[in-house]
TrEMBL record:
The gene is gmhA. One of its GO terms (molecular function) is carbohydrate derivative binding. PROSITE patterns: SIS (PS51464). The keyword Cell inner membrane does not apply. Keywords: Coiled coil, Isomerase. This is D-sedoheptulose 7-phosphate isomerase.
Length: 208
């Protein structure tokens, strides 16, 4: 029991410290929320992707948009590229694991849509490939990242980077962040006024 209590306390301290350090990154999270709202208001679709625990976050965001988070509302168009094991294994087998997200994104997404990639390292090859595909097709993109953002940070229009080297803490904040975005989306879709119309809209790529 003492060991369990010790683990609980240590985990709580780490999470609180990570959240405290992440406060300076909240403007980037706000920009991701604005991108999501703008995409949906313009009739676009949000596509999500990630690996492992990040795939769970990608699936969670998409299902809450199509279903609901807190408010009963019309369903919102969102697709997780992690959801179809037949497509994932077909593409991985025939084209390579690095193409499992970029290939369906190429088939399904159109200008005005948004790709949102999750990667705690910022170096997942399949997320990088999807971000680069999005750029080449004039599809807006955002990334939920960790550590120093890795190679993915400059590839996305907006990157929210959780300043931690703990995969567990990064994933926990990513889940919290996507819940913040869902709440913003549900409030904004019923409110046509600022800040959602244009305020904090990213005019250029993060890191450029």
């Amino acid at each position: 029991m003492n060991e369990i209590k010790s683990i609980l306390r240590a985990s709580k301290r780490e999470l609180e410290e990570t959240l405290r350090r992440a406060e300076e990154t909240f403007p980037a999270l706000e920009k991701v929320a604005v991108l999501c709202v703008q995409c949906l208001r313009q009739g676009g679709t949000i596509f999500t992707a990630g690996n492992g625990g990040s795939a769970a976050d990608a699936l969670h965001l998409a299902e809450e948009l199509v279903g609901r988070y807190r408010t009963t509302r019309d369903p919102l168009p969102a697709v997780s590229l992690c959801a179809d094991p037949t497509a994932l294994t077909c593409i991985a087998n025939d084209f390579g694991f690095s193409e499992i997200f970029s290939r369906p994104l190429s088939a399904l997404a159109r200008p005005g849509d948004l790709f949102l990639g999750f990667s705690t390292s910022g170096s997942s090859a399949n997320i990088l490939s999807a971000l680069r595909l999005a750029r080449s097709r004039s599809i807006r993109s955002a990334a939920f990242l960790g550590k120093d953002g890795g190679q993915a940070a400059p590839e996305a229009d907006v990157s929210w980077i959780v300043p931690s080297h703990s995969t567990a803490r990064i994933q926990e904040l990513h889940t919290w962040g996507l819940h913040v975005i869902l709440e913003c989306v549900e409030k904004a879709m019923g409110n046509q006024e600022e800040p959602w119309r244009s305020k904090a809209s990213p005019e250029s790529r993060e890191g450029d």
